[in-house]
Design goal:
This protein is mostly beta strands. The protein is built from no helices and 22 strands.
């Protein structure tokens, strides 16, 4: 088993007034040659957007882009003709494929939105752009692992990669195991709230631990904890 630890306070940051963003991996003006990716996981941004503000129309191609609201709402529009509001409990994915343009705004003038923006490198390039969004019952992740992104599970949103995203809400003192879906994949465990022991490593809020060269990962909640699991192929990127 191999691991890599990223403490919350070591993340890159950017604050533009309307946007306060923390970057687990190199993004924008933040570059760290040791923090470019974890396998096919390329971007994990923790974004807080002020009321009424947002990202104007901009292009993407050949990237799987997942948005997970943690607090508040996010309005999405793109060149596939979709215009949706994603709320806490929703998971959205945009397969940019051969290219599209989109925008993201906080539709509420009086409250912030906090959401995760996650980019995964695609399995196939230049596919027809695709959008998917689903609402998940949060009770399904109580002391359990709830899959929300998958290339094979019809109950999850589809991704153009052998990647799986799962959420778990653990009560203090509980323990679970994460089982890899594919041999050779790794999993990035990101703590949304609380504190947990992951493979005997203590993780606090917004800490991340990448784990690979194993089939199973043990997790024990030191407090009530919320976790995100991002399982991806362990691709090597050119530096």
């Amino acid at each position: 088993m191999k691991t890599v630890l990223h403490k919350a306070e070591t993340r890159g940051s950017a604050n533009f007034g309307w946007l306060d963003s923390k970057h687990t991996f190199s993004f924008g003006r933040y570059y760290n040659p040791d923090r470019v990716n974890f396998g096919a996981l390329r971007v994990l941004n923790d974004d807080v957007v002020k009321g009424g503000a947002g990202f104007g129309t901009h292009p993407h191609d050949n990237m799987e882009i997942v948005s997970i609201p943690l607090r508040g709402d996010l309005k999405h529009e793109d060149s596939t003709g979709r215009g949706e509001i994603i709320e806490t409990g929703d998971v959205q994915i945009m397969s940019a494929g051969s290219g599209l343009q989109h925008s993201e705004f906080n539709p509420n003038p009086d409250k912030e939105v906090n959401f995760l923006q996650i980019w995964v490198l695609p399995k196939e390039r230049n596919i027809t752009p695709r959008y998917d969004q689903k609402t998940f019952d949060i009770a399904g992740r109580d002391n359990a692992i709830q899959t929300v992104v998958s290339p094979t599970d019809d109950q999850a949103v589809w991704i153009n990669q052998d990647a799986y995203f799962s959420l778990s809400d653990l009560s203090s003192g509980s323990s679970i195991y994460y089982q890899m879906n594919h041999t050779g994949n790794g999993v990035y465990v990101f703590v949304l709230e609380g504190e947990a022991e992951v493979t005997d490593t203590t993780l606090s809020k917004r800490d991340g631990l990448g784990v690979w060269e194993t089939d199973q990962v043990s997790i024990s909640a030191s407090t009530d904890a919320k976790l995100l699991f991002i399982e991806v192929p362990m691709l090597e990127l050119a530096r």
